[in-house]
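OP here, attaching both records as promised.
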Amino acid sequence: MFGKALTCPKCDVPLIRDMKGTLEADVCPTCGGMLLSREAWKIAREDWESALALENAYADTNPMPTLALEMLCPICQVPMEQFYPPDAPNLPIDLCTQCGSLWFDDGELGKLVNVIRSRQAKATLPEEETEGTPTIGWVYCANCGRENFADSEKCWACGEPLVPESPPLPAPFQIAAEIMSMTVGGAGAVLFGLFVAKPHGDKWAALGLVLMVVGLASLAALRRLWRRSGGTTIFPTYSGH
């Protein structure tokens, strides 16, 4: 699809060019993200089976969530901007305004295909059958833990029917728990960075490393094990795998 070797904007590893059906993309074998050209984006919106086949062929193998402070286009090496597809206005995707390429994190293409298919199916139903159907928010699959749009009927990843679950804690407590997890992880990162290279600083560096692991692990547990029925203001699109 592209004429030069590309690297993942998150993991900095070479992307693999792969094609499933009619859809071709450059995929990261580590985080499962993929780069689609403008033409491939049009194909993905029409050929759902090829898009899901490509999505399901790769997964995020990182033990911890990979966060990038700035997403650079693998082709142009310029910062990408967030793009909200008309088909899924609550799913931000990274877009390069120079070459038109789009970057999908692991799971995002599957969510997009799922919501397009679901909304097209609902468009054929009588109006009285679609009244009151939620169109914004998330529901977590009780089988695999993947995020799905609230108006989806089946999980895009495993195909199981979606049954909304009540949050184990009120939303303010869940958000507070996430903030606390991020604070602990951030404090650990600061300790580790300050003392890792200093003489006799190994104990403080070890403490910082432990705090980082605890903070990130608890944050991942909050988002994956609880499988909340709605996103939060902290990581509205994060999906643990």
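Record two, same layout:
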Amino acid sequence: MLALESPSTRPPVPTAPPKDHILQCRGYLPASHPLAISPEELHERSQQSGKRKPTSKTDRGRGQSSASQAPKVDVIDAMMEGLASKGGPMAWLSSVVRGNKTVRVVTRHRRGGQRGVAVGRIVAFDKFMNVVLQDVTETYTVRKMVYKERIDAMRPVLESRTRSIANCLLTGRSIISIQQAS
């Protein structure tokens, strides 16, 4: 929360109107997402509601907000362009998202070793390398205790498992590497 209050923090698009409700952000989701709303439908809904209030003293007389007169900019694209302009891994991730390419993400578990591999499409990412994946197939290992007769004791054995996930968030802390799947 303190990061939001720091004077050095700037929004990616300063002219973008603030969103005060999570449903107002549905217009920024990719069109393939089940909760996405097209910008036209979002505009129609705001026109139908008729509950728009003036936001500044100069707008009160006209009944229109200054944000509606500003040129419309896609916030997600603006953020990705800002990250891509810096070069390096963020530029590569930005090109992967734009190209809708499949990636292979190697993950770690909390004990520090390799947990498994997730293959899917990156939908979004941030500067901390947190990644949102879609249509994921994850192959991972779990430790399972198995009884060994010859030594008459329980011993841990690694077992490989596979599962499919529609959408998942991988924290940057748990990612070892990301590479384009072949």
